Amino acid sequence: MKHVVVTGAAGFLGSHLVKSLIDQGHQVTGIDNLSTGVSKNLQEVANSPLFFFREADVTLPDSLDFLVDQPVDEVYHLASPASPKFYQADSIGTIWVNTRGTYHLLELARTKGAKFLFSSTSEAYGDPEVHPQPESYRGNVNTWGPRACYDEAKRLGEVFCYEYYTKHSVPVKVARIFNTYSSGLRNDDGRVISNFVTQALTGQDITVYGDGSQTRSFCYVDDNIRGLQQLMAVDSANGEIINIGNPTEYSVLEVARLVKELTQSDSNLVFLPLPEDDPKVRRPVIDKAREILNWEPEIGLEEGLKLTIGHYRAMLQETP
């Protein structure tokens, strides 16, 4: 049995990862400051003897002191707002958790001799001029705009990982995560899938930004979590940056129409101005994931949307 530390444990990806690790019989310490994470996400495991939760802010120097006498085998650093709605609302906090917080977690991994996984993002590629995006592409990121607090903080987090790998031999792995979805996304999250499904099920207008021609690649959460765990497990991935995402590309308008069809919704499609620096295309090259991790996604968009819609519909029916 391993002792695994997961930051951002009450968030979307973090809570799914925690549940998967506990199902596999591992001891898990979850850390979250609950700024965007939700305690309800951890209800299923709250009473498990394998789970311990600590409400803490990993940007603070003493936030990890409670682990000083405990062995730690693996550290998944997932803490960070990931939706533009939330990271732009707390831009400075987003910078700190991906830089100062990353430093604190890397120090923990170094002192404990633990493996370390940093959840970076496809946003590291910015508004890409290379399509699709391989890990070797260095990106096209605007440092002077509303998305920079997230994009550039993640890129600097990757630099911290590089330094700890090259100077301290910490077994670091970096996952550049592309759009991930399922019912676990907050329905007020503001991202494409959560927006479209919630709007369609509640009869609101389905809001498409721009003309909807911008593209995204959507990975169902179960595939993503399997990819992250495989990345952590494979020693040949040490010191590697690897894309984790689904390489099948859809326009945002295609997704809106598919959600409308699958929900049998009468909602109207309405078009709003495209946000500043919103990427026009987004699609991962996953050759490294296939070769090094023996991983690729298995759940297609329509299947994943049907699962997501079913869960959201049940959740909305339970809401008073």
From TrEMBL:
Q: Which residues form a coiled coil?
A: none
Please give the cofactor(s) recorded in the UniProt entry for this protein: NAD(+)
Q: Name one GO biological process term.
A: D-xylose metabolic process
Q: Per the record's keyword annotation, is Transmembrane helix included, yes or no?
A: yes
Top-level taxon: Bacteria
* Pfam families on file: Epimerase (PF01370)
Q: Where does the record say this protein resides? A: Golgi apparatus membrane; Golgi apparatus, Golgi stack membrane
Entry's InterPro entries?
Epimerase_deHydtase (IPR001509), NAD(P)-bd_dom_sf (IPR036291), UXS-like (IPR044516)
Per the record, the major location class is Golgi
A Gene Ontology molecular function term for this protein is: UDP-glucuronate decarboxylase activity
Q: Which UniProt keywords apply?
A: Decarboxylase, Glycoprotein, Golgi apparatus, Lyase, Membrane, NAD, Signal-anchor, Transmembrane, Transmembrane helix
Cellular component terms per the entry's GO annotation: cytoplasm
Q: How does the entry describe its membrane topology?
A: Single-pass type II membrane protein
Q: Where is the NAD-dependent epimerase/dehydratase domain?
A: 4-245
Q: What is this protein called?
A: NAD-dependent dehydratase
Organismal lineage: Bacteria, Bacillati, Bacillota, Bacilli, Bacillales
